[in-house]
Amino acid sequence: MERLQKVIAQSGLTSRRKAEELIIDGKVYVNGKKVTELGTKVDPNHDEVVVNGVPLDKEEPVYFMLYKPTGVISSVSDEHGRKVVTDFLPTENRIYPIGRLDFDTSGLLLLTNDGEFANLLSHPKHKIYKTYIAKVEGMPLRESLKKLEKGIMLEDGKTAPAKVRLKRSDKQKETSIVEIAIHEGRNRQVRRMFEAIGHPVIKLKREEYGFLHLKGMNAGEFRELKPHEVKRLRELAVT
Predict the structure, then answer these.
(1) Are 119 and 226 contained in the same domain?
(2) Where does the RNA-binding S4 domain lie (predicted)?
């Protein structure tokens, strides 16, 4: 038996918090009876759960890691007909990305149909570091990189401290390669951070998500996460 809000979240329909709101608002029925009490236990394999008039699909949770190429939308559909991340995964499950990578950013992206898992990993209070490799204009001074390490003021507030390492610089091309790890997920955050210190990003790739990495993978390839990896990500999120 599982808590009703957990069953709804794991179906991929919504987050657990939103599921709780739907229960309180009388939008959830179990075996034909309205349920408004949080913590109600149900059998996900036998009880019929209906949310907003729609029965929950009893899908097995799936967890994927994708090496997103540039020029791909981090969504399940696009009104302009552009390629989306779910186009790369041959699955019938209703899956969606956890967070997003910009259209012009490549790298490691997680996808799932487990709403609770997605909410856990994307919640701001859960500090899972994501590591990016950025090719930037110019050769940043150590003082500039220290600003990123301490947190820098953007239009939507000061960023959390980052881990930053200058990997190399090319004086002839006037470009540099910088590794930066952050645990926040604001829109175009890494690009805006480098713009704030006067070194706009030319190319950006997310290489690591916590302990997961892209080694051995090519752009457009994916793999299913192993059970121990899913467990470890859950543990990382709550520590």
Answers:
(1) yes
(2) 2-60
Asked if 205 and 134 sit in the same domain, the reply is yes
Residue 93 pLDDT greater than 80, yes or no: no
Question: What's the pLDDT at 225?
Answer: 97
What is the mean predicted confidence (pLDDT) over 55-81? 88
Q: What are phi and psi of 85, to 5 degrees?
A: -65, -30
Q: Are residues 186 and 140 in the same domain?
A: yes
pLDDT above 90 covers a percentage of the chain that reads 67
Q: Is residue 234 domain-shared with residue 121, that is, in the same domain? A: yes
Report how many domains make up the chain. 3
Asked if 184 and 223 sit in the same domain, the reply is no
Nearest to 110 by CA among 234, 239, 238: 234
Structure-model confidence comparison of residues 46 and 106, the more confident one: 106
| Active site annotation includes 170 | no
Q: Which of 102, 104, 156, 170 is catalytic?
A: 102
Q: Positive or negative CA dihedral for 79, 81, 84, 89?
A: positive
Is residue 18 located within the same domain as residue 114? no
CATH code assigned at 35: 3.10.290.10
Strands (E), the chain: 2-3, 28-30, 33-34, 41-42, 49-51, 54-55, 63-68, 96-97, 106-112, 130-137, 153-154, 157-158, 163-170, 175-182, 201-209, 212-213, 222-224
Mean pLDDT of the chain: 91
Alpha helices (H) in the chain, listed in sequence order: 4-10, 16-24, 115-122, 142-150, 189-196, 227-238
Domain hosting 151: range is 130-209
